[in-house]
Amino acid sequence: MALVQVNPVVGDLDGNVERIRRVLDEVDDCDLAVFGEMALTGYPLEDLVLKPGFVADSQAALEKVAGASGDCALVVGFADGDEDAVYNAVAVCQGGRVHGVYRKRHLPNLEVFDEVR
C-alpha cells in the first residue's frame, strides 16, 4: 500500500493528472495507492467550482487517471457533481475504470472552506 502526498496545483487538472500518473509509475508493484482529498483538482477550489465546465473537466480528468490505474487500486479525491450540486468526492479506480464514488457529507463552512455553497 502507498499513502501518497502530492502537491496538486489548484485548477491544473492536466498537471495534476500527470503528477498522479508519475506516482503510479513509481509504485507499480503496489496493490493500493491512496491519494489525498482533492488530489486531482487541488484544494481549496473556492469559486473555481462555479466556472462552467470545471466539474465536467474534473470528471474527465478522473477517467484519465482511472485509465492509468492498471492492477493497482487507486483512491483519489476530485470534484464531482451533477446539474444540482458540486461535491467534494473520492473515487476508487482499478483496471482502467472507476469502480465507485463517495461524496463527502459533512462540509466545513468557515473562511476558505466554504464548501456548503
Automatic annotation (TrEMBL):
Q: Name one GO biological process term.
A: NAD+ biosynthetic process
Q: Lipoprotein among the record's keywords?
A: no
User: Would the keyword Transcription turn up in this protein's UniProt record?
Assistant: no
Q: Which GO terms describe its molecular function?
A: glutaminase activity; NAD+ synthase (glutamine-hydrolyzing) activity
What name does UniProt use for this protein? Answer: CN hydrolase domain-containing protein
Pfam families xrefs: CN_hydrolase
Keywords from the named record: Ligase
Q: Which species is this UniProt entry from? A: marine metagenome
Tell me a GO cellular component.
cytoplasm
Using the record's annotation, list all stretches that form the CN hydrolase domain: 1-117
